Amino acid sequence: MTYSLMVPDKLLELVPNSVDDNDELNTYLLTSLEVGLTALKQANITADTSIVSTKFTEISENMKNQFIGENSDLSNSINRLFKEADSPFRKALDPDNPDSPIHKFLKNQNNEQKSHKNEISDLIKGLKSELVKELYSIKEDLNIKEKVLEERLKGAAKGRDFEEEVLDDLNKWQKYSDEFIDTSTLAEGTLKRKVGDILGKTDEGVKIVFEVKSGKDYRNTGDKSLDKQMNEAMDYRKAQGAISVTTVDAMNEKNWQSSIFLDRGGNKLIVAVDRETQDFTIVRLAYVLLRERLISNLDVKKIDLNSILPEDIEPIINDLSQNMAVFATLKRTVTDIKGRFEGLSKEINKLEDNITKRSRELKLLLI
Predict the structure, then answer these.
(1) Which residue of 112, 232, 314, 359 is most buried, as measured by CB atoms within 10 A?
(2) φ, ψ for residue 32, nearest 5 deg
(3) Given strand 198-201, what is the order of strands in its sheet?
(4) Residue 150 domain-assigned?
(5) pLDDT band at residue 339, thresholds of 50, 70 and 90?
């Protein structure tokens, strides 16, 4: 006799998830029903549980053969998926298989990377172009041009400022045991003004201050006059004399400064040096002259026989000043001649090009 039975959901939920085939599910449900019915039939105080134990052991062995162990059906199926070359799983994961999802995914990624690479390359080129434009714009705004660069080179010959060049030359020369101090960064007075670039001190207590002007921004009169700056420097540094050091190039542009040596009175001197040749001889002579003049004013009783007198130096300075003026004139003349020769050379090259061109045209007519 057969009997159809509807199994409720709450009983189906007790079936293990590993049982997913209909035949297996039917077998599992019939076996469970048989075990349950047998258990109920035999249920009493003296019930024999061997039947239940036997059925549970049988079910366990069936489950072990199908799902557990190295030789189970599940283990064999998984091994076939990973080991056999023609398994659907391996084909799906094969990057060389054109039909596999992995191959399609990698190909798509490669195309996207190439696309991104081109986009990034174009972006970098655009940024580079814009950056170059911005740099040129900044240079124009800051007026960084060739003339500015030339002024910087002149303003820092051999990598140092003009003040340092004068100071180094005085220390290297050092005819006396005098001390030369860099005071260009020392502020004086309540207004913290920076006056006097170099201060010379003698053993006799004489002080001579130097105002060093590497540029051309000074005047003969007014607030920017060298005399006013020297007076202020002497006052702040408690010096008895002052020397303004400028350049021959700056002197040539001044209508009032026609000599490389000017005595302004009041123990103030102005000298101009040829900075291109690093010749500071006129500075040394001016210092010696002013030093001896100031020391002689101290009424020193004992004078060294080897000391240099002011009257001995002045003729030399005057002669040197005249020679430097002639030298400056010759230098301008040579520069003018050089320019004329360069212009003549360009004309000769132009004439030569024209002759060559006409000669070729003539040859073509004769062919």
Answers:
(1) 232
(2) -65, -40
(3) 179-182, 198-201, 207-212, 241-247, 268-273, 261-263
(4) no
(5) confident
